[in-house]
Amino acid sequence: MAAKGIPEDVLMDNDLIKDLVDVAKDSALLNGVLMRTKETPNSSEVVTYAPFTLFPSPVPKDTFHQALAVQTHYNRLVDKISQDSSFLEEALSTTIKVDDFTGRLFNIYRHVLQEGKTQSIVLGLNRSDYMLDQNGDGSASLKQIEINTIAASFGGLASHTPNVHRHILKVAGRLEDSKRILDNNPSAGLAKGLAKAWELYGSERAVVLYLVEELQRNIFDHRYVENELWKRDGREVAIVYFRNGYMPQNYTEQNWEARLMMERSMAVKCPDISTHLAGTKKVQQELARPGVLERFFPGEPDVVDQIRATFAGLYTLDMGPEGDKTVAMALAKPDQFVLKPQREGGGNNLYGAEICQVLEGVKQSTERMAYILMDKVQPRPVHNYLLRLGTPLKLSTCLSELGVFGAYVRHGQDMVLNECAGHLLRTKSDEHSDGGVAAGVAVLDNPLLV
Ligand code: ADP
Ligand code: MG
Ligand code: MG
Fold first, then answer.
1. What is the pTM of this model?
2. Which residues make up the binding site for Mg(2+) (predicted)?
């Protein structure tokens, strides 16, 4: 059998597709790929399927395994950055002057740094995201989009989507394809990290505090990880697990105080403030400078190579000749770049004409330092159907983003756990250049290894 994606004749068979869509939605419900509705985000009386693709999307086997293999190195990198205060100070010194949100996070960081750390256990649960950049010869290269060190989501639901796609493919008469969908269990991998940190914390009665959003549509994603923990039993706050707190809108003045209080507490923070800052786009850009990875991995050139191979071009917008060059480059060819502020959650980046508009406005002022510039990754588009409540069915031209979950626990100087915890494929229509699942743009998917 040809190792390809879903053939066009299947995608164009309207009667089959109509049947499959009904089967797919029921299968998503039966397998617990669920979300609360927009109308009643805090009640489970009425729930719906989380948005997902009708078919899995092709991902080259080698690239997929490359992404999994580099994850434990990324875990170590994030952890090393979080412990390197002079690097964080230097990398973020310009950003915090002009970006209020990062500045306030940094104030908390300085505060706890001065006081001294209260807790020697560090728990990291992150997700490194990639797109596959097309090369001229038809091959593709794995390029990191970003790493999320706070509130990395959809590990729970991703543990349940493989069965949905397997079932759809079976009903479509594509049994062989259905066998090519991998098992995936990030819930267990993430819960393993939480459980390990809890165990090291060492109080039988202590609990894990989930910090959640006011609107909780994605409750089932949380519950899967939580339920893994209930299997172990527990009660006092051993761990604060942030599934909120990554956007300025998440913070009132009172919430900023609460964040500081948590950072100063004995609880293990996932992430602690330094690990949160290690996940900023500015840090990502600084890591791409020559010699920086070598500084974090002295004597480990293979690790450096493996990580660097996944870097797309990243450019500073700090004041000075280097930043001026970046401005000129972006204005000359805006379609080749993405302009990124220090924000999370999708929908914040700028593309094409917007890049010119914004850069023309800020290019002479220090405000430009709030952004970084990145090469635009150009994945090969694939046809698929995106299933989302209330959206009419149509064949879409889609782009996929592969996420890999990492889980690690450090106790003092000892890495006691460092694992790749599973993967997540998200797919969106190429009409949108930005936005994740929670932002209502991308949908859940599975890789069909080719
Ligand atoms: P966020 O933290 O808001 O998720 P991202 O850096 O992941 O920020 O960008 C959001 C989305 O924008 C990504 O999911 C991807 O679809 C798109 N995107 C970001 N960077 C690039 C890039 N360099 N090339 C192509 N698309 C990108
Ligand atoms: Mg992000
Ligand atoms: Mg992202």
1. 0.94
2. 146, 148, 344
